[in-house]
Structures are given as structure tokens and as C-alpha cells.
User: Fold this.
Amino acid sequence: MIDAVEWLEHLYDLKHGRRWVTLVGSGWGDSGKGAVESSISDHFDCFLRVSGGANTGRTRYIMTPDGEKEFIFHLIPCGWADNKESFIGDWVLMDLDRFSTEINELQSTLGRLPNAPLFISRKAPIYLPYHSMLEAYLEMRKGADAVGTTKRGIAPMIAGIDLRIGPEIGHLEFPDTLRQWVKTFYECFEVNFKVLVEWQKCQADLAESSGRAPTEIYDLKEYSPDMVTEHLLAHFENIRGFITDIDSLLLERAKANVPTLIGMTQGYGLTRKGTYPYSSTTQTSAQAGAFCSCIPMEYFGPVILVDKLDPTRVGWGPFPTGMWDRQEAELFPKEHPELFSALKECNPVARQEFLDEYRQLINSDDNPDEVVVAKYIQVLLNELGATTKRGREPGWPDLYVNACAAQSNGADVIALTRIDWLSGIKLNLKFATEYRLNGNVCRAPDFPSPIERLEQVQVGYEDIHVDLRNTELYGSTELPAVFDEIFNLIRLHTGVPVGMVSTSPKAKEGKIFRDFRSEVRK
Assistant:
């Protein structure tokens, strides 16, 4: 094992000393990028967020006057909390309500605002309530084929820019022009919004007659273009000092090779390469760092692929290695909040009794019931969506998806997170190593598409027997020998070595940096 400084130097050597490092997710999002980022953040001077929106969340532990505390970042680059210069780039979808709330929450958690600059690009798109209304309309129109979005209006925000009717942050500096942009967007979809409201009224009547929860009804008078514009301008007074042209500043940092960490959102499986149309995001690949920041590729250095040993998924769409019914998994925390330490209703005694019982069920059979394993993982690791708090469906590790992500992103190393779920567990751990379609083996990075083909995939597994009944992994920096077998299997099927291992989500504990140089494929 080596320290983080030496580990990063080995990474830089792979890319001719370039110190712009990109973090990307390997699978279905929620991979633990925040834990990886926090473990190396001390060694970077600059943080860059280039894509995504308020629908995503990155959970990190940050230092406060009262010690480390968990904080969920949505729009603010995580490094700003570490007093590092931070940038919000051209393709970050800015929800000003969410941003203002996040600023206030961070200030409350830290006891102050960070002592470092934060820059927001004038080109970043602005969220309008019409984006969520349009998304709700589209979901309504799709009926049974709706994709189960977070209702944050992410896809309509992207579409608004592509259709040339979406306002940008810079328009806040020109109130009259902003008002016209907002008016144009509203008028383009006013007919659709009225149809949506009438449908919502019908749904509300049905809900009332059946005793169900009331249905939200948009009041279009409250969302007139003038009112929306004034609401945006009120936020402008609070964020005026953050807005600037960032291209020249970033290019200066790139030319000077300032150590910079670029954090992409979500994961490979939630891009258009993955489970389209069950995804709403901007660009999330390593190459998008250059595309979204307008910085030449030559300045970018290593790529770290973040992978969680318990891949999870929320929302709708295929999950080839999933263990549980998705809807049941999403509802489980609502039905049993007492089991989740991340929820205020948690009952520690009930939680421990549940974990003890399910651990015993798993250990009594080398091939335990998958739903038992999934429930155990969800409760133990508090697998809840960072933004929605929906329960995540756990799955078996998927090395085919990882191989596609590694090859498509040009990954240099894999950072493996949340291996600690295996503490005290004995079972045959299943790794998906092969996808087949119509009897034919799929070839990475060819990810099955369209979505109808992915739903037909047959998954081939390889098992590794794990017996850690007397081993506690949480926070550990030493690993049992079985992990050598696991790392070798991962490298064999992805072509990328495991360079870092995290046994705890906290910043200052449970981080193992491996000297991976002998394992790099030449």
C-alpha cells in the first residue's frame, strides 16, 4: 500500500505528467464518487463541475467545526467545501432555487461560507418551472410507457438549449431580454400546460373519490412569464458575485497544469450509451470534460473509473444483474424507515435485529435468496437515492458494464467502493462476466441497444467464494486474500487494474491506495 500523493504521481506518469484528473461512474450511478473525491481532494487546487443538474446528488463527508459531517452536493462542486477554487461550467443545469438552498445549507453546516472563489459560467442553462411542467406533460402522454423521472425537468432543459429557446445564466444580467426568453418558452408549450392542468384536475377528482392522496395541480396564474422572471431576478442578487466568463480562467489553469479534479455525474449505464430513454442527463463521459469546458483534450490527464461492489439502480429501466423487484425496492424504506440509520425514524434496535437476522440467513446458504441479499445490502448501506430518497435496488457486480465504461472512457484505474458490505458474510459472490444476445456473446464496448435488446440479455456469471464471517471490513486498510482474486477477475474482464479501494464513505478513513503499475496493460 502507498499513500495518496505517491498514488497520484503514478497516475500522472501514465499521462505524461498531466494533472487534470477526471472521475467517472462505471455503472448505474450512486457509485461512491463522493467518497473517492474526498479522499484525494487535499491534493488538488481546483475543482470543476462540467455537466449534470440538481437531479443528481454526490454524498461527501466534509470537515466542520464539529468534526466530519455528511453533506449532499447537487450543483456546487464538492471541493468548494474544502476551500478550493471551484467552477460550475457551461453544461451544468442551474436550478437557482436548489443552488440558493444548497449555499445556505453549506453555510449552516460549515458555520461560514468557504474561503475560496466559486465561479459560475454565464453559459450555464437556467431551470424554469416550465421544464418540470413539460416533463410532467410528457410523462402523462406516455401513460404506461412513462420513464419515471425525478421531475426536475432535466431533459426539457437540455432540449430547450437544443431548440434555442432556453435562457442561460448570463441572461440574468439583462432583465428585459430574460423576460422575453421566459415568455417565448412559455408560449411554445402553453397549450401543453393547459392540457396537463386539466388532466391533473381529473386525477385529483379521482383521488378524492377513492380516498387517495391529493394530486398536485399547477396554477398557471402563479407561473406567468412575468412572475417566473421576477423570481429568477430575485435570485440574481444573491449569486451575482459568482457569475463570470470562465473559459479564459480554465485555460490558464490547464496551461499551468494546476492539479484539477473534474467530477462527472451519474454513471455509464445512465447515458445514451446505456439505458436510453430511461435517463436524463447531460454528457457524463470522460471526454465530456473537454467538450463541456471547451478545453483541448491535450490538457486532460488520468481517468478514474469509480465502481461500487454493490451496484444499485433507482428509477425505471433494465438492470441486468438486479436482485429485487424495482418497485418493491423503492418502497421498502418508506414502509420500514425504522431500519435505515440515514432516516430520522430509525430505531437502532430494530435495525440491528434485522441485520443480524438477514446476515444469518445469508450465511446459512452459499447461494442465498437474492432478495434476502438485496434487502440486507439496502439496509446496511442505507441505499437511498441521494436526491429522491427512493430505495435503490442492489445488484450483483457487473463486469461487462464496467468493461464498456472502462474502454469508452479510457479509464486508467478503477476505484472500488463499499466493499465493506461483505463484513461478516459467507456466500458465493456472483460477478457478471458475459452478456449474450440470441446465443451470441456481446463484445465490449458494444452495449446492447436499443433498450429492447438490453431487456433480452442473458447474463453469464463467475462466482468467487467469500467467507468473511469473522472479518470486519468497515474502515479497514488491510484486506483478506480473497480480494486478490476479486481484483484479478476485475482486471481480467475490464482491462483496468483496481488502483484504489474504499471501505468507508468517510474522507479520512478506510482508503487503500495500491501500487497498480505492474498491472497496467501495455
